[in-house]
Amino acid sequence: MDSTKSKAAENTGSDLSEQIKAVTKDSHVRAENTQLMLSYQKGQITQTQYKLLLCSLYEIYRALEEELDRNADHPAVQPIYFPQELARLEALGQDLEHFFGPQWRKRITVPAATHRYAQRLREIGKSSPELLVAHAYTRYLGDLSGGQVLGKITQKSLGLTGNKGILFFSFPGVTSANRFKQLYRSRMNSIEFTEQKRQEALDEAVRAFEFNIDVFDDLQKMLSITEEASSDKGNEAASQSLSKTFSSSPALQFALGVGITLATVGMGVYAF
Ligand code: HEM
């Protein structure tokens, strides 16, 4: 028996919603304790951090929602398919436009971890759509839980007025987050899984958290490099040579736009 299996069997009944919560409990604690999420909890989120996060969220939700839409009639997707209530892509586009202007699409740049996460979503959308529930659960129920507090912190930290720049956190189609989460859990529990597929879905949920943790860590690395580069004058030569290397790339144009010097040795950066 592997670790996710034993935890699910020990701690919970047979409902998928309970099992998924139990097997991802430790991963949730680790996600909360990433540097980026800790900055959030301390109310120390900067505009640079937030803009970078929005770019990654856009690519993640683009993949997730395209795959959910394409598989909307699949028996394991249909019960948890709530585009009216949950879809985030349009809101993310509007938030990005708020910060980057009408040419925002050209400014989207994400680290390698985001690219890997989106690739995994597309892969399972094609070969195992029944596992999409694990990813939809991880993102949407997270957004409807701790995510609601993060929205308020973002607004306060960045001094934003109204919903401008923070539409991502707002769910106009959901009147009560708690009641909606209950409905969502009951829909998850109605999916008919074989034992093997149920186990695969639980493993995929743990993976979904890992992908998120990797994205936060990569974003933090991009941000730390900026701070180091701007505080360490000795890096000027290296920084200049890197600028030459990246000078014609959209990644650098983006990086300069958000105030980052790209010294991404060993970390892929993808511009779309
Ligand atoms: C600052 C960081 C975070 C805080 C403070 C936070 C806080 C919370 C809280 C208070 C709940 C409600 C627990 C309950 O109702 O029992 C929750 C649930 C949840 N969170 Fe987070 N969270 C954070 C980050 C994340 C991240 C990064 C993810 C995943 C990407 C995530 C995914 C979830 C999920 C899926 C649930 C629903 C659990 C369930 O009811 O099954 N959270 N979070």
TrEMBL record:
Keywords: Endoplasmic reticulum, Heme, Iron, Metal-binding, Oxidoreductase. One of its GO terms (molecular function) is heme binding. The keyword Cell division does not apply. Its EC number is 1.14.14.18. It is found in: Endoplasmic reticulum. PANTHER family: HEME OXYGENASE, HEME OXYGENASE 1. This is Heme oxygenase. It comes from Danio rerio.
